[in-house]
Amino acid sequence: MKALRYVTVGAAPEVVEIPIPKPGPGQVLLQVTAGGVCHSDDYVMGLSAEEYAAAGYPLPMTLGHEGAGIVHELGEGVSTVKVGDAVAVYGPWGCGYCRNCSMGHENYCTNAAELGITPPGLGTDGSMAEYMIVDDPRHLVPLGDLDPVKNVSLTDAGLTPYHAIKRSLPKLGAGTHAVVIGSGGLGHVGIQILKALSGATVIVLDVNDEKLELAKHVGADITMISDGDAAAKILELTDGKGVDAVFDFVGAKPTIPLAIAVAASEADVTIVGIGGGAVEFGFGTIKYDVAVRIPYWGYRNELIEVLDLARAGKIDVEIQQYSLDDGPKAYADLASSSIRGRAVIVP
């Protein structure tokens, strides 16, 4: 089968031929219908050889932590799914037994590192291939009649902002304000989630006019360029009080101080992006009782909820489609910030 693999540190991924894997006991073999491209992949491939080795990633590695497919073959003992089922893959795999996993919070598994359990495409071979192994059927969520190409990105680009936003919903009733920094792959879905679930006025910042146009298209109430004047403009819009929640989908050195600067007392600041920024925290650097969070991915039940939102027509992912052979180009386009929304690879 064909697979898009990271073969050499520092080099572009390659399309190669490898054997179709065989599911072992308790495993499921999927025939992949779609795999999503993510900045996390770009981050991993940007690590130096020393950083890559220290993180424990293997070489070669099939990319793709956003996946959807058709159940093709069952390993011994699997009975909760059947051949032919259309499914989406829940990516942050855990041990299944610790306290967090028992609640469906496998993204915060306390045993994964010790047991060497890694997500598909981020340590384990992922979805950018014609077939992929899923370690346990509990990681599969029914897709039903949802288009896998259109919705595969929701397994991360929908689940991650949903998890980030859901905790802040009690603070986002009528008359409140929320800021979204970055209207890219995750941010443009986060805007839709905020509009579907909260009463907040949604203010979106980006450095790119095209991304701000996308933000308006998906429902942003106010858009503005993210520059040195953005904080002052937001404070003026809120009569100097600041906003009730900030969701930073960039996480860069300039954006995190901006997020802190516009947060009102008792606001939430949630940093989702992995752009290399950091929070300066202490008296005088942040308003009273502001909560700063750095979430990771989302819960299994939340993926079901995200797909239900898509099924109800409340969220929609802007995608650019690539063939598996064009997978290296998809990552080149991602690196050049030329993708509108999310890139999806279709085997």
Write the layout of secondary structure elements.
Layout: E1 2-6, E2 14-17, E3 28-36, H1 39-45, H2 49-55, E4 61-62, E5 66-74, E6 86-89, H3 99-102, H4 112-115, E7 131-134, E8 140-142, H5 148-151, H6 159-166, E9 177-181, H7 187-197, E10 201-206, H8 209-217, E11 222-225, H9 230-237, E12 243-248, H10 255-262, E13 263-271, E14 291-293, H11 300-311, E15 319-323, H12 327-335, E16 342-346
Parallel strand pairs: 9-10, 9-12, 10-11, 12-13, 13-14, 15-16
Antiparallel strand pairs: 1-2, 1-4, 3-5, 3-7, 3-16, 5-6, 6-8
Describe the structure in your own words.
With 347 residues, the chain is an alpha/beta fold. It has 2 domains: 2-156 and 298-346, Medium-chain alcohol dehydrogenases, catalytic domain (Quinone Oxidoreductase, Chain A, domain 1, Alpha-Beta Complex), CATH 3.90.180.10; 159-293, NAD(P)-binding Rossmann-like Domain (Rossmann fold, 3-Layer(aba) Sandwich). Helix content is 26%, strand content 24%. The protein is built from 12 helices and 16 strands. The protein has helices at 39-45, 49-55, 99-102, 112-115, 148-151, 159-166, 187-197, 209-217, 230-237, 255-262, 300-311, 327-335; strands at residues 2-6, 14-17, 28-36, 61-62, 66-74, 86-89, 131-134, 140-142, 177-181, 201-206, 222-225, 243-248, 263-271, 291-293, 319-323, 342-346. The strands form 3 sheets. Strands 3, 5, 6, 7, 8, 15 and 16 form a 7-stranded mixed β-sheet that branches. α9 packs parallel to α10. The longest helix has 12 residues, at 300-311. The protein is globular and about 60 Å long. The protein starts with a strand and ends with a strand. The mean pLDDT is 96.
